[in-house]
Model the fold of this input.
Amino acid sequence: GENVEQHPSTLSVQEGDSAVIKCTYSDSASNYFPWYKQELGKGPQLIIDIRSNVGEKKDQRIAVTLNKTAKHFSLHITETQPEDSAVYFCAASIDDYKLSFGAGTTVTVRA
Amino acid sequence: SAVISQKPSRDICQRGTSLTIQCQVDSQVTMMFWYRQQPGQSLTLIATANQGSEATYESGFVIDKFPISRPNLTFSTLTVSNMSPEDSSIYLCSVDQGGWAQETQYFGPGTRLLVL
Done:
């Protein structure tokens, strides 16, 4: 099955700086790559996703890039704010619904 | 996006007992999913539940331990049977929404289970 690796496991950034989380996947047939943010005591919230026919997608301070050749995709958060502190999960899917998740990245934004 | 609720939000149970978790969606959806998130860990898919058919379980999960019902297009239940402390986890339901090749998966708030 699909194997998704996520790095780093923890990330501490100064408020206003950028944060980058990277994921690699094993199955070249994967075509859908969502990112979720999970705050303490809550369920995962979809923050951005990208499909294999697109190389980059941006939504305000959040962007995702996809390199199909290298089988990796990344989440970029610019101008980080304290409310960006959370656990972030990447995921990959072949068929749009069966998601394989990375191990998660705990992001801490220092004020 | 779909609004998903789960009951109970949390529970403390004794080993050997069973707990049924409910998942309610505010719109009709074809596919619903149940995930387990062990403490400090990532999400693992337990099973896929489609209305009108038996749930499809992932490797390592069996129907006797995690029976699932899907009586209609807005509701599903997951039962954690004969619980042990190893079943202490967050249980999450999710749904798929969107058109063909544009499906997006949304999660409920989770049920936090502690087994003593």
